Structures are given as structure tokens and as C-alpha cells.
Amino acid sequence: MEQVNVGIVGLGNVGMGSLTILAENAAGIAAKLGFQLHVKSVCSRSVDTKVLPAALGQVRRTSDWREVVADPEIHIVVELIGGTGVAKELIDAAIAAKKSVVTANKELMALEGAEIWDRAIRSGMNLAMEASVAGGIPIHSVLREGISGDRVVALQGILNGTSNYILTEIERHGTAFADVLAEAQRLGYAEADPSADIDGFDARAKLAILAALAFGVRIVPADIYTEGIRRITPIDFQYAHRLGHTIRLLCSARRSDDGLFLSVRPALIEQSTILASVQGAYNAIWVRGHYGQDTFYYGRGAGPNPTGVAVVSDLMRVAREIRAGSPERVSPFAHERLASNRPLPIDLRKSAYYLRFRVQDKPGIIAALAGILAEKHVSLDAVLQLPSDSKHNLPFVITIEPCLEQAVAEAVAKMAQLEFMVEPPLAIPMERPL
Ligand SMILES: NC(=O)c1ccc[n+]([C@@H]2O[C@H](COP(=O)([O-])OP(=O)(O)OC[C@H]3O[C@@H](n4cnc5c(N)ncnc54)[C@H](OP(=O)(O)O)[C@@H]3O)[C@@H](O)[C@H]2O)c1
Fold it and tell me: Could you tell me the pLDDT band of residue 1, with boundaries at 50, 70 and 90?
């Protein structure tokens, strides 16, 4: 075999980024591999409108992915469509046709990656998915190979660049959430329907994949406790800063004696921690190993070129194995088998909390809130009130000492019923560093 032939399906952001790198960096890639990685076919619905890099040379174009899968000369199919419909059909068909698959599809890999891998390994094919989490950060390689000798005990990550961009813009400029979101949509950083990003579902799929790699567990993404960032306001950053913290949409996974705690939610994190300095659309992952202790990974979480690097690097690894005729495959989930697992209910965790209120000012408010906290055996830590003009919509904050989250949830539900509340209290955990 002189060269390894590749078919790329999906010519959007990631598809075009991957093609650009394969074309522009072809000599460097061949020098590393010792053979050519040849793009034989490309496919998208509107393939004829796509301007391909000239350096790719002669490439077959098709709008029917089945032609790519059916081509006997293609060794690796790259799925860059996204979603769980056509993408799944395509990957299943490719594996059945004895082709290895490279994908960037977090949604599908989080939901059905384990079964797809089973089918791939039974066919003697490979499945690679580095680009599915944190785009340009090679976190899969790290967990699968770099630190696979360790026993991961916890990880924290900022895994959604859109949310991080929005939060850091609110933090920097004091602009309201809705205005920052509208600007992010105008600039193309946020989708027209931003729910997957700002409600935490995109990050949840990524955390499910990381949990599989780190802990060998198969998690149903919907079982992960998830909250989005819609309620975060500029005033929350002012209070968080007063407390020496900032706010980020944090993906968290911790092993305990009883199981795993997994969550995606806004959290107050100490400004002195390395995660707090992650700004804009960047991603980061902090991993704590039992033996090797802390390692930290930082980089662009999305974008055609950073994600394209992950896709092309996967292609190179898979192509090497094909050329070497190696029957050995390392599971893309870093474990030969994944055990089904349900995360522990978040209510059982202990956390310190930030509670932000908006009230109609009147005497006795603090006493009423403190009474509810005492009833639930929750200890108040501090009360903070920044100067405000509005007596009808007065913000202030109470922090509480670490306690069972269930008690906090019950207290907050009761507080929400008080007649002086302008809106339900906002409760954000103050996440301790790993
Ligand atoms: N964007 C990022 O930075 C990023 C980062 C990490 C991972 N990912 C993942 O990478 C994947 C691709 O994302 P993207 O942002 O590149 O998406 P995108 O820009 O929307 O591109 C999707 C491509 O798929 C093609 N397509 C859709 N349905 C098709 C079908 N039935 N047959 C053939 N082609 C079809 C589209 O064709 P037309 O162009 O002809 O409509 C388009 O070229 C997703 O799984 C995403 O989650 C993206």
C-alpha cells in the first residue's frame, strides 16, 4: 500500500479546516508518517459550491455519502456532519464496509460511542474521536495514553467556548446576558438556537465522554446534573469578585467512596485558581491523578483549524495502524470495556453556596432568610450588600458554609415563596479547587 486513502463527509467548519491542513501541511504529514495521506473523496449536500484547497489535487466530489462508503479504495471515512441521524447511519455503514472511522461528533459518541466501538472492534476497524471534546486540546490522547497509568480521581473543565465567551464578556464589560448573547450570535460565536451551549447540553455530552475515558464508565448524558448560564448577571460577577471568586460554567467529575459526582453548572471558582484565568472561547481541563497529581490542559475548544488538527492527527494515527497491519486497537474510551454507571444524586454532595437575592426592601428580610437556613441546619457564612439605588429590586448575597446540597435546595425553594422576593433566589455552588 503506497498511500492511505481518506473520504471526508461534511465540509462545514471542521471539514474545511481539516482539508486545509491536509492540503497545506501535506509534506510535513508525509514526513512524519513516511507515506502519503491521500484525500480521495469529499462529500456534502452542496458539494459543488465548495472551494477546495488547490493543493489537494484531484478529488472526487459527491453529495451522496454512500458513494464514499462504497468506494473499495477508501480506507478511512471521516464523519464531520454532526448529529445522531445521518451521522450514525454513515458510521455504521462505514464499519460494516470494513473502514475505520474518524469523527468529531460529541453528541453521537456520548450517546452511542460504546456500542459503535464494539461494532468497530468486531470488524477489526478503528474508531477515533479526539475532536469530540475540547477541539484543539488533545485530552483524549492524554487520558487514553499520556496518563493512562494513573488513577484519575477528579477533573474539572471549561468545555463550552460559547458559554465561556459570554460569561467573560459579562465579567469584563458588565453587559447584560441577553446583549452579550445577541452580539455573540452576530459574530457567529453562538448558534441561532443557542440552547445547546448556554443550557449546558453540549458540555454535558463532552463530560460524559471524558467520564468514560477517565473512569471507565458509561454514563447516559441526561443523568448528569446540568444547569445553564441564563440567570448570571453582571451583579453576580461584582459579588463574586468581592468574594475573591469568578463564575464559570464548570464541568466537574469527582470519585467518592460511593460513586461518581458529575455536574455541569455555573460555579463560583477562586480567582487564584488556574481555571479562573480561562477567558473568551478558550477551553481548559484540570485533571487530578492519584499518583501523578495535577495536570492542566488549555487551548482552543473549537474552530476550523484547532478542531481540524485533532481530526488530522487522528487520521495519521489510524493510517499508521492500517499501514502496519496492526490488529491491536486502543479503545477510544481508554478502557477495554465500559461499565454502566449512574452518577450519584447531586443532592448528596456537600458544597459552600452563594445565594443571590432580589427583594422589595423592608425590615426583617435577613431574619426571615436566616430563620429558613437555621430550620434546614444550614450555617450562614456572610451577608454582602453592594450600594444600590433600588429599594424595589434590591440585590444582596448570602454565602453559606459547606453543607448537603439537598438542604440548600430545600431552603432556596422555601425562600422563593417569601412575599418580598422579586425573583427566585439564584443559588450557585462555590466549587473548591481539585
Ligand atoms: N465547529 C467546531 O468548531 C467543532 C468543534 C468540535 C467538534 N465539532 C463537531 O464537528 C462536527 C461538524 O461540525 P461543523 O461545525 O463543521 O458543522 P457544519 O459547519 O454545520 O458542517 C456540517 C457539514 O455536514 C454536511 N452535511 C450535513 N448533512 C449531510 C448529509 N446528509 N450528507 C452529506 N453532508 C451533509 C453539510 O453540508 P452542506 O455544507 O452542503 O450543507 C456541512 O458541510 C459536529 O459533530 C460538531 O459537533 C465542531
Answer: low
For atom 6 of ligand 1, the residue with the nearest CA is 135
Atom of ligand 1 minimally distant from the CA of 49: 40
Question: Residues for the chain: how many in total?
Answer: 434
pLDDT at res. 188 = 83
Class of domain 346-430: alpha beta
The residue nearest atom 15 of ligand 1, judged by CA position, is 13
Please give the distance, rounded to the nearest whole angstrom, from the Cα atom of residue 102 to the centre of ligand 1: 13
Decide whether any atom of ligand 1 lies within 6 Å of the 86 Cβ: yes
Please indicate whether residue 206 is annotated as part of the active site.
yes
Banded pLDDT at 111 (limits 50, 70, 90):
very high
- Averaged confidence pLDDT in the chain: 96
CATH numeric code, 151-300:
3.30.360.10
**Is residue 311 within 6 Å of ligand 1 at its C-beta?**
no
* pLDDT reported for residue 114: 96
Q: Virtual CA dihedral for 85, 86, 88, 94, nearest 10 degrees? A: 170
Give the model confidence (pLDDT) of 357-408 as tens digits.
999 999 999 999 999 999 999 999 999 999 988 899 999 999 999 999 999 9
Provide mean pLDDT across the span 421-426. Answer: 98
- Kindly report the protein residue whose alpha carbon is nearest to atom 5 of ligand 1: 302
> Ligand 1, from 50, 64, 80, 312: best to mutate by most atoms within 8 Å of Cβ?
80
CA of 424 to the centre of ligand 1 (A): 39
The model's pTM is 0.97
Domain ranges of the chain: 3-136+304-340, 151-300, 346-430
Q: Is 21 in the pocket of ligand 1 (CB under 6 A)?
A: no
For the chain, percent of residues with pLDDT exceeding 70: 100
Q: Which atom of ligand 1 is nearest to the CA of 79?
A: 11
For domain 3-136+304-340, give the fold: Rossmann fold (3.40.50)
